[in-house]
Amino acid sequence: MGKYVIIMGGGRVGLSLANLLIDEGYDITLIESDESICNDIAGDLDALVIHGNGTESKVLEELNADDAEYFIATTGSDEANLLSCILVKKFDVEHVIARVSNPDHEEAFKEVGIERVISPERAAAAQLMKVVTRPNAAELMTLGKGDAEIVDMTITNDKVVGKRFKDVSPTKDFIIISTYQKGKLVIPQPDNTISHGEKVSVLIKRGKYEKVSKKLHN
Question: Is the full-model pTM beyond 0.70?
Fold first, then answer.
């Protein structure tokens, strides 16, 4: 049996999370206060689905919350998520995580000691911002606390075309970590020559995207 995780909320976020964790071998119990939603998802989810309210201590006791390594509140109600996380802290749950719909409420969650606060709305807004500000790059991941990110870029600046990788990268702002040749990822060697239209993955320090984009793309 995998690690025991209790998820409160059978909406889009909670259901998607449950399926992802199930695929990773976690033992999931999902609580949902809407009986019709419970009935809809119970047959499709390889987990225990409970019709109940995670804001009630009795329900948490019945689910053996003391045995859970994670409690994750994912409903669309910040108030319900906050209350359930406060209640579950009375149990021996190692990690308590909450979804926050209104980013203005994040501080309230942190003040009562919620370990992690996730705002899908804020994340979606940040992603949309990057689509606007970085039309020539595809973000792969953000590292640390946003200190750096890895992006895919296409070399189109003739000032670097024909140069060796070691003459262009690394710098204090970025490093080219991989390139693609015939659709396959290749670690570039220092003496390899950069080609026009070559697709590369670049590790970029926070705040340096525009500078690096101009050097490689423009």
Answer: no
